[in-house]
# Entry
Amino acid sequence: MNFNILKHIRQQLYGCMERGADALFNLADALLCESQAQSLPELSLSPFFERQWSSVYEALEDGRINVEQVRALWVSVLLAEHAENEAIWIAVDGSNLARPNARTSADRTIIHLPNLPLVDKPISVGWTFSTVVLVPEQASSWTPILDQQRIESSQTAIGVAIAQLQALKPLFGNRRVIILADRWYSTPEFLRACYELGYSVLIRLKSNRKLYRVPVRRHKRGAPPKDGALFQGKRPETHGTADEVCSQPHPSGTSVQISRWNHLHFQQDRELDLSVIRVEREAAKGSKRDPRVSWFVMLDAVIPLPQIEKQYRRRFSQEHGYRFLKQELLWTRVHVRTPEQFERWSWLVALVLNQLYLARQLGQALHRPWESTDRPVTPQQVRRVMPAILLQVGTPARPCQPRGKSPGRAKGFRPKPAPRFPVVRKTLKEPLKASG
# Structure
């Protein structure tokens, strides 16, 4: 990566913006450089935003980004750093964005929030986004975004994730792709889609999920059985003998035991052959965040058994990436009305994160006096030197052309109040019938 390559990629990104490209690109550059800004009006004061503050909201309202071109561009750029025979590790997950007071915003649904000390209730109202990222080898916030899409009220997180993986399949070519996901994605529907797309998976499994072994016919008469013996993680009496067992030492002095059971299936999809892995850690605290026993599901044996725990730990980088998007890149702090405007803003945030990911190879970063220079650089440290980098690579956006003053509203015109939208509930409870 050098300045010429970064400049060429920025020109291609500018070409992916079909309408309002200049204002959108200036807004992305302002977000890229202003690490102290906390709102859209503050971003409009950046020297890299060459327009008035009203152009910020006009760009998000009238702008248009060709998502297909942006997705193809980022996949080609990000995968160019990996060899052809190297496996590509990606993670898919959803993030909830609370919008409890935005009554003029459409398509808000009930979302779940972590029950932190500052959260009174674990549920709120807002939007949900599904994100596919490229995960690094070491845990960090360097998670460039391959695709991002809002989950509408008429959609499910599983359905949107499958559509995203299907759209990315032609761009990956013949590369080996391994998907890391949380336990909410260990469903027959998602696993079947990954199998048909040729993806390998390492997905966490709920301990109460019921799987079945290969059926064995015991009687000549009657229909052949469809399911074999039950296998359930929380019931040890159903485990039987594992097909493969591995034990390895832990840095704390204890051991980690990993077991695998092959040829299992869900009752909803009996043709899909699965493997279930159990990881037992003696050094774990036994809490929800640090369980002693963890369960995983796989479609093949592409990951060696001793590396299961280490490789799945890479998935938590996506959580660090989400935190950087929300706390530093103002993903959730903008005040826009429609979900389409927020989707454009979400793609601008993704463009900023991916440009920081490319700029990290330029070897420039700014450390605070209390930050260690021996540790790998973070996205925020690279972001502090982006003004100097952008001064060298320039911007493909055209300079602002003053057009005079607007005549304003007609005399006597009174705008109507913005329409209010109810909260969409995906599952409606049936009314109780009166007895008797």
Summary: The first strand starts at residue 17 and ends at 19. DSSP finds twelve helices and 14 strands in the chain. The CA atoms of residues 14 and 21 lie 7 Å apart.
